[in-house]
Amino acid sequence: MSEVREVSAVLVAMRRLWKRVRTAHGLSGDRGMSTAEYAIGTLAAVALAAVLYKVVNSGPVGAQLQQLIERALRGPF
Predict the structure, then answer these.
(1) Nearest-angstrom CA–CA distance, 25 and 14
(2) Are 56 and 65 in contact, with CB atoms under 8 Å apart?
(3) DSSP letter string over the chain?
(4) Which residues, including other chains, have CB under 8 Å from residue 41's CB and lie 6 or more apart?
(5) Mean pLDDT taken over the chain
(6) In which region does residue 39 sit, left (phi positive, over 0), alpha (psi from -120 to 50) or beta (all else)?
């Protein structure tokens, strides 16, 4: 049991030392997104794109967009 306590004490000391090193070198702040944050951001962007795709390809919206583009192309240059 004493070996477990010694190992635990060493781990605690190493964590404290690492925390001091990180703080001394300015590494303690957030420097960007983690992989999980990138994944969630990507999923949110894909979901938004899917919703916009459905809206644009719906009947009334698609017809209005087509009319808008035709009107823009017929305009004077």
Answers:
(1) 16
(2) yes
(3) -HHHHHHHHHHHHHHHHHHHHHHHTT-SS--S--HHHHHHHHHHHHHHHHHHHHHHTSHHHHHHHHHHHHHHHHS--
(4) 33
(5) 81
(6) alpha
pTM: 0.43
Query: How many residues are there in the chain?
Result: 77
The number of angstroms, rounded, from the C-alpha of 12 to the middle of its chain's C-alpha atoms is 33
Residue linked to tokens 């190493």: 14
- Predicted local confidence at residue 46, as pLDDT: 93
CA 68 to CA 63: how far, in whole Å?
9
pLDDT for residue 33: 63
